[in-house]
Amino acid sequence: MPKYSFFCRLSLLGILLTMLGCAMKRAQTYDFPEPIDTSSRPIVLQEKKIYSFSELGVYADNRFAGARLNGMIALNDTLLQATVAPENTPINHSAFYAFRIWADSARALTVELDYVDQFHRYWPKLSHDGFYWRPMDSSRFEMAADSSWARLQLTVGPDTLYVSGQELLTSNDVWTWCSLQAIHPAVQLTSAGKSAEGRELPRLEINEGDPIGKDLVVVLSRQHPPEVTGYLAMQAFVHELLADNELSNAFRKRYRVLVYPILNPDGVDLGHWRHNTGGVDLNRDWAYYRQPEIRQVANDIVHFRRKGRNRVVLGLDFHSTWHDMFYTPDETAPSVIDGFKEKWLAGIEASLKDYAIREEPGPVKQPTSSGWFITQFDAEGITFEIGDDTPRTLVRRKGQVGAIEMMKALMGVER
Fold it and tell me: Residue 134 belongs to what H/E stretch?
């Protein structure tokens, strides 16, 4: 055999091995039964401005991260109409709003939220500093019979008042929280990449000891910007994993955990109802990874699993909806931890007084994160939904109990 032929074949083999190695580091595509086109679509950005009603001595603005206010006009001396529109359509019914309002002197004022072909969803939250929030008193709230508008009776003055559908927790707030968790010796904070607009996609790795060969749990949150209650539950979940007690300490020695607390930082900071800057629902992009946020996070998980020779056993994705709900795989889905969800859900129900689990099992259909964990790893993929209006103390308690019962179920600890 000529020498050049041998070297050509050797080079070709090297190229093929390199290509194979690169492919193994990337998430594999999958044809889900109900495919969804997640190619980028145009979005409409809100104009950032101050709405000045000098004749009334009243002002409002949307010039802060997380704001959503598309327009405001005065209907009379005491009634302002705020227009709230989504980033694009079609879109989920998640009509989020957030603005600031103030006046030259103290006065009563009504603001009517007018939705564009949508309806009211989020109960108003009020704050004077953007940090401490309180729900609006029901006596000062009115809503149309068809939910097409809502009226908020406000007392405004020189002290700026934040009005928002949910508490504002921006990408900077998330990074600050991650930095505080990274003080714990078992936590490493790094970035899985950047969003389309250059915001960080933070990743927390929780582990004690040698990570090689451990089973791996993955936690996701904030694919959808307004779903704050899911994020709050995720925070409490992580806090419990890091607690200094016998169960949590033992769990960190046996399991490795990856936490991606905000997958859609652009949408969060731009006050989006649902989508990223590509105009796409990120929780439908887990088949072909057309959006940079999901592509980077999916590849990051696969890279960690391969490098650490870990077995992914569970993926939990925290969301919010109208009421508490667990979306789980049905009996048709494979799982490397058979029986986990039954033990886990039963443990949660037993630990929360007067609480009945609402579960909706189903087959893998659409390219969601839960379906991705199943198709990519044969892992358990579960969506942990928290109600929009669930009391915040209960939200955090559910996150805490969810972590405790997960650790018990995975480690075989009896109740």
Answer: strand 134-135
Residue 15 binned pLDDT confidence (cut-offs 50, 70, 90):
very low
176 shares a domain with 132: no
Task: Give pLDDT tens digits for 371-412.
Answer: 999 999 999 999 999 999 999 999 999 999 999 999 999 999
Helix (H/G/I), strand (E/B), else coil: 401: helix
Position 20 scores a pLDDT of 39
> How many structural domains compose the chain?
2
Q: Determine, yes or no, domain membership for 144.
A: yes
Q: Which two tokens stand for residue 311?
A: 């077995």
Q: Which of 105, 133, 164 is where one domain is finished?
A: 164
- With beta carbons less than 8 A apart as the criterion, state whether 305 and 377 touch: yes
Q: Is the dihedral of CA 261, 264, 266, 269 positive or negative?
A: negative
Strand 161-164 and strand 125-127: the pairing is: antiparallel
| Rounded distance between C-alpha atoms, residue 394 and residue 64, angstroms | 29
How does strand 215-221 pair with strand 255-260?
A: parallel
Domain hosting residue 73, numbered range? 50-164
The pLDDT tens digits for 342-377 are 999 999 999 999 999 999 999 999 999 999 999 999
User: What are the angstrom distances between the C-alpha of 315 and each of 328, 376, 406?
Assistant: 11, 11, 11
Provide the pairing of β-strand 98-103 with 79-84: unpaired
The answer to whether position 12 is within a domain reads: no
DSSP state string for 4-70: HHHHHHHHHHHHHHHHHHHHHHSPPP---SS----------PPPP-EEEETTTTEEEE--STT-B--
Contact by Cβ (8 Å): 369, 381: yes
Which of 138, 164, 190 marks a domain boundary? Answer: 164
Residue type at 411? Answer: M
Measured CA to CA, the distance from residue 269 to residue 394 in angstroms comes to 26
* Plot region of 349 (φ>0 → left; ψ -120 to 50 → alpha; else → beta): alpha
- Distance CA(398)–CA(224), nearest Å, equals 20
| Angstrom distance (rounded) from CA 349 to CA 34 | 32
